[in-house]
Amino acid sequence: MMLMLVPAAAAQPWPEIEWWVDLDAPSFGSAATADLDGDDLSGRCVFRSGTLTAGGPAERLTVETEGMSTGIYVIRLETVSGNCSSLLTVIR
Length: 92
Fold this sequence. Notes:
Layout (H helix, E strand, L loop, with lengths): L1 E4 L11 E6 L9 E5 L7 E4 L3 E2 L3 E10 L6 E8 L4 E8 L1
Antiparallel strand pairs: 1-2, 2-3, 4-6, 5-6, 6-7, 7-8
């Protein structure tokens, strides 16, 4: 089963990034793949959508980058209560 997490409708100053989380993956830490659009991926992107299997409804999905040259992006999923559900690292 695939769950697509998409950006909120509000206008945002960063490029659009769409993330797919495979809820059937053996390890949630390796469950994220990404389609990255835009040339400038620096800074933080906040999304509001989707449901997590372990943490309940996802209130926020934050994407941070270690820098364009590293290709490493850290995805932070948080529940409505504010507790961090999972940290995912995606290497592009």
